[in-house]
From TrEMBL:
Keywords: Cytoplasm, Cytoplasmic vesicle, Endoplasmic reticulum, ER-Golgi transport, Membrane, Metal-binding, Protein transport, Transport, Zinc. Belongs to the SEC23/SEC24 family. SEC23 subfamily. It holds the Pfam family Sec23_trunk. Its main location: membrane. The lineage of its organism: Eukaryota, Viridiplantae, Streptophyta, Embryophyta, Tracheophyta. Residues 125-356 form the Sec23/Sec24 trunk domain. This is Protein transport protein SEC23. Residues 54-93 form the Zinc finger Sec23/Sec24-type domain.
Length: 393
């Protein structure tokens, strides 16, 4: 029993059987099915790290391991333990022998890590792109600014920060020019494409835009200077970002008494995903969206701006009587596929207890976003009911 506990401590794998059945009849006789519990984030202080890329099977792409069959003769081949494919060793392995084996063949190294030079060079700093809804009351903006200022003080200095605010229009703040506040504005009622973001935000203002290929990151023709205008290390943009947040106010566009605020959530999220896809594709980037109500403007809207039209309920969705539902689902499905392709995450932060008012929560939007695989984290921060309900806007 001690041996199995040691193996579990070494590999973070627990299985109900010590030996797997070798035939269908033996597998049918197993009362407990064959299964495994794997803990991928279990800390291993003594795990070796190899400074090169793993050697993979040319058929099933599995990695050379201690359970592979190795021929140390002049042919220098190894047989995959999963698909039994015969693979030749590359020239860098020609000096191996039974007394001179690479670390991945040691019996005690069943769990190891690889860190090749190319992968290490490609590693980037974490990216946080804040998307803030300004169609909320002044009191809530004050609480949000206070919380964000506290969060910015705890972030690592090397992480990249970006800021987008939205209401009737989408505002992308240029943090790399701290002398004068500089903002790029997009109309919230229209869907924005990647090419429009490239053109309107001046990514190729000083040089020709590539006519072929996908423009994504420094390796594909984008200069580091153009990226650093919108995504800066926290240590370099702290003063500019704090100044913008301290002066942040409610969306200035007037709202009639019988209308909801024009909240272009879908356009803001689309611009944010395009911006990350252009600047830092495939990196550890996350969009952190702070929403204060349902989307009413542009793509992804779930309710009209007319206050007399209530937000659709679950019964409306079941009866297929929500006119904006299918368009919103199509838009957010496309957005989620784009984020998955880019390797980015969207975190939605919202606040609601009940849908006591049509504009009192964005719960329906959050429920819609929760169904998409790219939206990995949805945080609902609950607060007690006020003695007096907020006025309809």
């Amino acid at each position: 029993m001690t041996e199995f506990l040691e193996l579990e401590t070494q590999d973070a794998v627990r299985m109900p059987w010590n030996v797997l059945p070798g035939s269908k009849s033996e597998a049918a006789q197993c009362v407990i099915p064959v299964s495994a519990i794997y803990t991928p984030l279990k800390p291993f202080p003594n795990t070796p790290t190899l400074p090169y890329a793993p050697l993979r099977c040319r058929s099933c792409r599995s990695v050379l391991n201690p359970f592979s069959i190795v021929d140390f003769s002049s042919t220098k081949i190894w047989i995959c333990c999963f698909c039994l494919q015969r693979n030749h060793f590359p020239p860098s392995y020609q000096s191996i022998s039974e007394t001179n084996m690479p670390a991945e063949l040691f019996p005690q190294y069943t769990t190891i890590e690889y860190e090749s030079a190319s992968e290490k060079a490609a590693m980037t700093n974490p990216v946080f792109l804040f998307v803030i809804d300004t169609c909320v009351i002044e009191e809530e903006i004050g609480y949000l600014k206070s919380s964000l200022l506290q969060v910015l003080g705890t972030l690592p200095e090397n992480c990249l920060i970006g800021l987008i605010t939205f209401g009737t229009y989408v505002h992308v703040h240029e943090l790399g020019f701290g002398h004068i506040p500089k903002v790029y504005v997009f109309k919230g009622s229209k869907e924005v494409s990647k090419d429009q973001v490239l053109e309107q935000m001046g990514f190729f203002a000083n040089k020709l835009k590539p006519t072929t290929g996908v423009i994504a990151g420094v390796r594909d023709g984008l200069s580091q200077e153009s990226i650093s205008r919108f995504l800066l290390p926290a240590s370099e943009c702290e003063f500019t970002l704090n100044s913008i947040l301290e002066e942040l106010q409610r969306d200035p566009w007037p709202v009639p008494a019988d209308h909801r605020a024009a909240r272009c959530t879908g356009t803001a999220l689309s611009v944010a995903s395009h911006l990350l896809g252009i600047c830092v594709p495939g990196s550890g980037a996350r969009i952190m969206a702070f929403l204060g109500g349902p989307s009413t403007e542009g793509p992804g809207a779930i309710v009209s701006k007319i206050l007399s039209e209530p937000i659709r309920s679950h019964k409306d969705l079941d009866k297929d009587s929500a006119p904006l539902y299918h368009k919103a689902v199509k838009f957010y499905e496309g957005l989620s596929k784009q984020l998955v392709h880019q390797g980015h995450v969207l975190d939605v932060f919202a606040c609601a207890l009940e849908q006591t008012h049509p504009d009192a929560s964005c719960k329906s939007l959050v429920m819609l976003l929760c169904r998409k695989q790219a939206f990995s984290c949805v945080a609902l921060h609950f607060q007690p009911n006020r003695t007096k309900s907020p006025p309809e806007t």
